[in-house]
UniProtKB/TrEMBL annotation:
Pfam families: DUF6458 (PF20059). InterPro entries: DUF6458. Keywords: Membrane, Transmembrane, Transmembrane helix. This is DUF6458 domain-containing protein. It comes from Streptomonospora litoralis.
């Protein structure tokens, strides 16, 4: 779910930065899009890091259990 959320944020940010040419008073859509894209990258990276940490813990737990038997 985390990777999907990160990709979604990145796509919304890209659309805001590159796809919309309208100007709204008081809002910089280019800056908002850049922030969304950066947030999407951060979410994807953090999700991958957490997946690797969980995999290592699970692998270590399985090895510890096999030593007992």
């Amino acid at each position: 779910m985390g990777i999907g959320l990160g990709i979604f944020l990145f796509v919304i940010g890209a659309v805001l930065s590159f796809g919309i040419t309208a100007e709204i008073a008081g809002l910089d859509l280019n800056a908002i899009g850049t922030i969304f894209m950066a947030a999407g990258v951060v979410v994807v990276v953090l999700t991958i890091i957490l997946m690797v940490v969980r995999r290592d813990r699970t692998r270590q737990a399985v090895q510890d259990d096999s030593d007992v038997i």
